[in-house]
Amino acid sequence: MKNRNLCTWTLCLLSLAALPSCEKDFLELKPDKTLVVPSTLEDLQALLDHGAVMNRGTSHALAAFGSDDYYVSTATWQLLPRPEEKNGYIWAREVYEGQPVNDWDYAYRRILYANTVLEGLTKLTPAPAQQEAWNQAKGMALFHRGWAFFQLAQLFAKPYDAATAAQDPGIPLRLSADVGAVPTRQSVAETYRQILEDLQTAEALLPDHPIVPQRPGKAAARQVLARTYLQLGEYPQALTATENALQLSSALLDYNTLDTNAAFPFPTQGVGNPEIVFYSNQYALEILYPGRVQVDSLLYQSYDTLDLRRQAFFYYEGDKLTFKGSYEGAYNLSTALTTGELYLTKAECLARLGQPDEALHTLNQLLERRYRAGSFEPLTTVNTPDVLGRILEERRKELLFRGLRWQDLRRLNKEPRFAKTLVRHIDGKRYELPPNDPRYVWPIPDNVVQASGLPQNPR
């Protein structure tokens, strides 16, 4: 922060951001009028550049706990201290045991920051020389709000179903910085309408190429739009958004340039990684510490021996196969938007829209940079009769531990061909999560329900 006043109002916002986790009487507290609030364009931009809030802990923890990217031993599970990790791993009916939930709190904190910026911008009349910076700040705020709404929808609202979306409960859509406003749950249809509106407006305002990957540009907005359209099943729109993103950001990392035997083969915090469209990471999760996580041996064996991801993503610790392939280049997991995902989304959309040759050409562009140099045999409709199935298999292998598997399971479970029952084995017991089970929607945090009266998700 640039000065003492910035520190003051940032601390104020941090305190207010915790309110969703507080008791009802705290919701009635009003900010101290003597506290300094952001009042200049520089102040507002500094708020958006607060990386510890806007780029970290990006609401994927519950998705990670519940997905099939990994498993843990009974001994590891029994030692987990946080209820949401322990109960989330087995998709328990009771998850949080009254504890706050970071996925909820952190997302609404980012939304509070975004709304504070948006309201602050309306009070400024930028000089001509500041108009572009004003536009970019508004675009960044709308991007962060839209992406946070999207992430919350993947955890706390039902998967989109056109037949029921207007009635299905979605998430509270906080559109102002008034922390005293009583939250209500809008429908799933309204939730996705707001996500699209925020991201489409952001896209028009953001720069083609942001000065640092911690700031979103047009490609980032288009990529989250593509994710949204995938959830809606609107493949032509997802294809357009993806192709538009690739026009601005299409570089791929050649895995032949990596030391795949290194403890962390990828650049630290994504610095120098040409695939990072927008930088973000997940806060540390005890259940996913290296050495605790075990990867399914069948998933590992699905990688060809000439596929460099096999060495770059995994290693053995004794007889335990575990994961080291975070694009964070460290223990924390990356949740960054990447061009690799864009190629896979484009390929999937092309396949679903009846263009198998173009789909495989797009997939080949990615895989050529994943296989040992000179060893990759391009895929064609002759040697790959199941084009869509192969693309989704490669999506599974490329994007594991990125916070994406949960939302993919939710959408693919609607198709019987790709639906999957997840299974855990703990302490001699078998736990299952069937396709389209109500537990694909996580409960709203207990303390939020108690303080606000929001209707809880059934389990």
From TrEMBL:
<feature type="signal peptide">
    <location>
        <begin position="1"/>
        <end position="23"/>
    </location>
</feature>
<comment type="similarity">
    <text>Belongs to the SusD family.</text>
</comment>
<keyword id="KW-0998">Cell outer membrane</keyword>
<feature type="repeat" description="TPR">
    <location>
        <begin position="219"/>
        <end position="252"/>
    </location>
</feature>
<keyword id="KW-0802">TPR repeat</keyword>
<dbReference type="Pfam" id="PF07980">
    <property type="entry name" value="SusD_RagB"/>
</dbReference>
<feature type="domain" description="RagB/SusD">
    <location>
        <begin position="340"/>
        <end position="458"/>
    </location>
</feature>
<keyword id="KW-0732">Signal</keyword>
<dbReference type="GO" id="GO:0009279">
    <property type="term" value="C:cell outer membrane"/>
</dbReference>
<dbReference type="InterPro" id="IPR019734">
    <property type="entry name" value="TPR_rpt"/>
</dbReference>
<protein>
    <submittedName>
        <fullName>Uncharacterized protein</fullName>
    </submittedName>
</protein>
<dbReference type="InterPro" id="IPR012944">
    <property type="entry name" value="SusD_RagB_dom"/>
</dbReference>
<keyword id="KW-0472">Membrane</keyword>
<feature type="domain" description="SusD-like N-terminal">
    <location>
        <begin position="25"/>
        <end position="230"/>
    </location>
</feature>
<dbReference type="InterPro" id="IPR033985">
    <property type="entry name" value="SusD-like_N"/>
</dbReference>
<dbReference type="Pfam" id="PF14322">
    <property type="entry name" value="SusD-like_3"/>
</dbReference>
<dbReference type="InterPro" id="IPR011990">
    <property type="entry name" value="TPR-like_helical_dom_sf"/>
</dbReference>
